[in-house]
Write a structure and sequence with these properties.
Pfam families: BROMI, BROMI_C, BROMI_N. InterPro entries: BROMI_C, BROMI_M, BROMI_N, PHAF1/BROMI, Rab-GAP_TBC_sf. This is Protein broad-minded. The chain is mainly α. The chain contains 63 helices and four strands. Helix 28 runs parallel beside helix 31 (604-618), helix 30 (582-594) runs parallel beside helix 33 and helix 40 crosses helix 42. Mean pLDDT is 79; it is low at 78-85, 131-169, 409-414, 484-489, 649-679 and 805-829.
Amino acid sequence: MRGLEGEDLKKGLRELIISWETIIREAGSLEAAEDTLLHLEENDENFHKHDFVRALKRKLEECLSPLIDDELEKYSTTGHIDSGSHETLVNQIIDHIIQSKQYGELKRRLGRNVGEAVDSLLTNFDAEFGIGRIGGGTEGLDPRKTPFVTDDEEVSSFNSLYDQGSVMLFNQDYLKGIADNLGKTKNPSTRREAMQKLNQIISGDIHNKHWPLLRKNLMDVMSDADEQLSDMSLKFVAKSFTCTSHHTSQVYILLMEFLCNQFTSSNSAIPLVKNGLDCTNKAMIKLLKAFRLMVEFQQEAPNYWVRYPLVYLEEVVESSLNLLALQVAPQFPNTKLCPLHFVAVLDPKAQWFIKWMHGNYSRSELLEHLKKYRVIVETALRYCLDFSASRKSPYDGMSEISEALSKVSLADSGKRLFYSGPELEYSLFIHSLSFLGRLLCFEKGRSFFPIRLKEKQVPVNIKQLLKALVLLIVDPGVSTTTSRRTEKNSYESTYLVSEVFKSLCSTEAMCSASVCKDDIMNTLLSPVAQLLDGATDHPVPNEMTLLYVADILCIVASSTRGRRHLIHGEGKGLLSRTKSSAAHLIAEFTKKALSEKLSPPCPSAVTGAYLYVCRQLYNTCEGLLVLSQYELHTCIAQTWRKLQDSEKGGSSTVSSVKADDSDKYKDSYSICQCQRSLLCIQPCYIRALLSELWSSLECGPQDTPVFTPKTWPVDPIDRLSQKHFIRLVNILSAFPAVYELIRGEALPGRETYGLRDVPETVTALIDRIIIVDSPAKIHSLFNYEQSCTFGLRVLSAMVSCLDTYLLLQSRVLSAMVSCLDTYLLLQSQYKFQEFLLQEQDANKMEGSDLFIKDALSLERNYVLVKTFMIGGPSERTLPSRTLEEDKSGNIKSPTLFSSYPIPREYQPNIAGRSAMKQENDLSKFLGSGRPEKKPSVWVEKCRDLFYKMVTSKPDQAKGNLLQQVLEQTVVHQCHMQEEAIFHLFDFSGTDSTIKNFKLSPLQLLGIKTAVRYGIHLKVINTSSESTENLTQLVKLTGCFLRQQQRSLKSSLRFVEGSYPGFDWFTATIFLIFNGHAERAWNFLHKFSSLGASGYLWMARLHASLLPISLLSSGIPPLFSSTAHNIELVLQIELPLVASAFTMSGYTPSQICFHWLSQCFWNYLDWLDIVHYVTVCVCLGVDYQVYLCVAILKHLQESILSHMQTQDLIIFLKEEAIRNFHVLDHIRFMKDLETKYRKIVLADMMNISKP
């Protein structure tokens, strides 16, 4: 019962009753007084501040809160409660609480204690309340006789304004007496006594009709020469600032007017700047105390002024700026200190301004008022420009000043007692720098520029200001420090300016509007250019200067606009490439630093910092396009070799890459995403990945006790396994990685399996959860259905790559590795379709043809249909993976089967070829047979007519017309030097050579699959004849390409021998020409000399024609060039899609490479595939890039959605590209050609670049 019994209770009641005196006097009758007291809580804003009320509230919460919580919990467990019964429920809870034993006991004890306290107060009424009565005088309460008043006279107002003593409530008449006693005519003792009484009144109670008089007299007291009296007045200001009333703004205005008077009065004793600031001078101590109160209020007020009326903010801002605008005209050397000098000493980094500019509520008012007080901005600008201009003065001692200012303290025993003139000027420069740095961060702040200064002939704009500040970084003169940045020199000018620039570069808008200017960037990079040029007319830039520049460049490069400015320059873009941009200078400097070709040698930390900037630049396609010529990857590789060869860590530059920045720069060159999958197939990585996967799917390798059992999974792949599923699919979805992992690897096929056996290879995983063909495998799984469903989902993602499907489907044959004359035979081939069909057959009900439909049988059915039936989104129907309800509530289930062919319902009927010919300008041009003197002229005419036809009459773009376009275009392009970049080899083989050419089981199965697809499309008729013709064509192209292949030695088995996958482009051309092998061969033979063949025909450049270094890497041009340019265009045209891929951990390069390598089979309908080939051959191979960008634009909404659900890779790999038709987007692709052909086509035609 703390506060509700004994003397504490009497004290609380006495205070409460005294506060009623004014209310009782103003009441006209007893009834009115009672009514007012009954509604006191509603009308008195100080009601809850009384000690008795607070103690009562605390006790009620202590006793009744558990009861209330129990009641709420009891009703919350009963279920949903209608909103209409909430009021009844509240009344029930209240009634239950009132009737409780705890409430009754509290009521009895409280009633007894209050009764005793009231009796005691009545018995001693005169003694208790006599001092509270107002008699004939206005002396009021004597605070020295009041037991509950404390007065911390020992606490100096020089301390924080929140460390002041307690206060007391008084009535208005009493306040008038105090105001009168503060007048100038009163003697000092009376004024001190009145000031002492005033210091015990809450400031919220003094703002009444007597405030004008009190304010006038307080101003006199604050300006009084009596030290004790003026200190008490500042104590009053400090205590007023602790009050939550919005009237504190009036006290703040009073303080501002007092300070203004100190600088505008004719008899003011403001010292000269050159004489410094003596903190032992009584007048200066008084001013510093007042400014200290001002600064603390300025920094604290933003926390709560949003609660008050707008006039509160307006008054505070207006009075503050009015004071700071007091500028004494420079009269060197007799310039006096101004208010900004004092503020700069107490708040050198302008924290008050930074806080006021933080929120829009105060920022808008502040900037609006600054228009009236532009002199403040002009003064800050003048100090920054003057400091920059004088940075090379023979003696300024800036390093000593910055160290001295770092020790500023006004609260402890080590406080400064004197500030010299240069220190005051330097502190004002720091304040001005921070002020302008924050002002420039906002658009309305930048609107103050340009600013006209009296001493300048032309207005100063933002660029001139920033250029002057940059000079403090790159050419700081004698004031700079060469030591490492630490906390003690945080006032060093170079460091502070670099922090301002980093804040300006922190957002796209600020960076673009302020820093991304060629003049500023050239000045910033001048130390780098000086080292590159080996100039001797300037001092060598020190390490810290170069690091400050690198810090700023890092922030600039982290934003899109800043990075593009570094790469291209001001106002320039991708199409206006120039070697004068900052990126070229940075790359050249970094290359020479890595190669140790700079004189003097570059410090290790600097090399690492600039290498990181380069990494930020070439981590994007635009940057890589510009910086690839510097071959930084070669320099980095050489540096690492030196590091490995050196027993003692090598040179300083080499050490920098490892010791200082190894975490940042170990992936310095952007590793090709194609190689990422190959790098991730190392045994240790696969083993760790499978271990984590198995732990989430089945169990860990150790028998660790589980105290909390796992939740039973309800999804095919639960959230615990999703992450590992995505990571595994990311690797196994690429055919080269699958080939490396399972080539020559047979299934383990063990007789027994332990429950804790964890698969360590991909083949072991296939054996455990995909080809589950024995009771031992079934019994070794804790979660058989979930694990097998997981395995089938992995298989479904893998067979989305048709080559992987063929590799898995072929049976095991004895094979051998051949050189150039033989084709690589696959040894690790699994007949999973037969296994799945057997499992489906075993899932039939006994004595019936009905299938048991569960998650596994539905998943098997989906995989069987998907792997058998090739086709685009409208050419095949894939069964559902789940049981679904129709509108009537009936269960819809897919048709299951246990033998091929698949049911007809999964094979939609496709219309055959139309024999009707349609004449148009293009067909007439192709049929005219008129030769052109220049093949390029014919090709351009053909392109124009083709584009005109596909945009105006796209329905005519099919059949024989497209065959003629392909044949005649290739014939003419073979005579164009810019198109025919490869030598047209004659086929030197014989019929015997072709007949003896061995096709791998993978290729034979691919031929059967392609023929089945062609028959389904009705582009070929008979199976046997078409199979023979396609087999002959594949052998012929294989022999032809083998003539040009080289023997490679590589750690990658994929690049050894002939192309290990199936030649999907050859099959596509075969079907385009309706199974005519001779026409297809004639086209392919001529097409092989064109640069486009290296991108459309995957087998064309396998192990041939390109440099050995490029061939050995396993990176085909389709990836290194096409995929690179896709990402380049994507980042500019579709930044949201590019960001979605980045966040998903999957890249556009991977999925586009997958689509293109199998000619969009299974993703687009056949006619769109034909249009894809024709467009790329006729209009240019760069349309391969534009088509992929158009597809990603079409899929943008789905990509963003699946990025959120973290299954983007599954969506893109397994789902067909629905509702997309190539010719519908031809205009968009034409626009991309106009923008990017100059870059993209030139890059693609430079196909042999390393």
